[in-house]
Design a protein that fits this description.
mainly beta, 15-stranded parallel β-barrel
């Protein structure tokens, strides 16, 4: 195991030894630091390399990879704070985002496998596509970031998502979702969310086709399906607590509540054409 730091002053080539401290290209188990400077790193296929860690620091302002040619490299741990647009492809056990640049292409992860994704900061958009998300997705204390989980990902059967801040656009069904704050846009075209617990914030449930929430519990905050365009969607079990609001006034009457809504306080705002029985 060695420590390698990106030191290039002009060359963009990952595979050039002179661009790295110790005059050696990173190899298996190395700890790699890209923490200063503005020299771009061109996309490169280093997928045969399994780093111990990859750290991209907030004082590095260069671009890494491109939409057409990504930097392909595996790492057990990734700590990301880079300010330039970055395009990555790899297998990562823990990927932590602490900061990012302000662009809509600030961080782009595709064709990857991630066990745990933590978004703790940033000011741009994090795009996850064509990847496998296995266990954990967290967006905590990241007020200015937008994370997009696209519809072409593969979601692990025990994957859980937690959000308390910022914006998340969820276009793929995740089994367990917990919302404490922020704005969570759920834009499904298919699939099932098994458990959705809301303790605050706003959830915009805007499916475009048939999908299901098995158990919805709103403790606090607004669950808002007014902008849904799906002909129908199903909520099997639902409970509204004192500080919670469910607003389904899309005008389409497209929500099917399989079982009676348990109202333990809070508000339910029905479509105007609904016939409601209270017991």
């Amino acid at each position: 195991m060695a420590t390698r730091e990106w030191i290039s002053t002009s060359s963009t080539d990952w595979n050039t030894a002179a661009n790295w401290s110790g005059t050696a290209v990173p190899v298996d188990t190395d700890d790699v630091y890209i923490t200063s400077g503005s020299v771009n790193i061109a996309g490169f296929d280093a997928s045969a390399t399994q780093l111990n860690s990859l750290t991209i620091g907030s004082k590095y302002t260069g671009t890494i990879g491109s939409s057409g040619t990504k930097l392909k490299v595996d790492a057990t741990t990734v700590n990301f704070s880079g300010r330039g647009d970055t395009y990555l492809d790899g297998t990562y056990t823990t990927f932590t985002v602490m900061d990012s640049g302000p662009n809509t292409t600030a961080l782009n992860i595709s064709d990857s496998t991630i066990t745990t994704l933590r978004v703790l900061g940033g000011s741009g958009t994090i795009n996850i596509s064509s990847s496998t998300l296995n266990t954990t997705i967290e967006q905590i204390g990241a007020e200015a970031v937008t994370t997009v989980i696209n519809a072409d990902n593969t979601i692990g059967g025990s994957c859980a998502l937690t959000i308390d801040s910022g914006i998340m656009e969820l276009k793929d069904a995740i089994p367990t979702v917990t919302c404490y704050g922020g704005l969570l846009d759920i834009e499904l075209a298919t699939g099932t969310i098994t458990t959705l617990n809301q303790y605050g914030g706003r959830i915009r449930f805007i499916p475009t086709a048939s999908c299901t929430i098995t158990t919805l519990t709103i403790y606090s905050g607004l669950f808002d399906s007014r902008d849904s365009t799906a002909p129908t969607f199903t909520i099997t079990n639902s409970t509204i607590h004192e500080n919670g609001t469910l607003d389904e006034r899309s005008g389409l009457e497209n929500a099917t509540f399989t079982n009676p809504i348990s109202i333990e306080g809070g508000q339910v705002r029905y479509d105007t054409g609904r016939t409601v029985t209270i017991s």
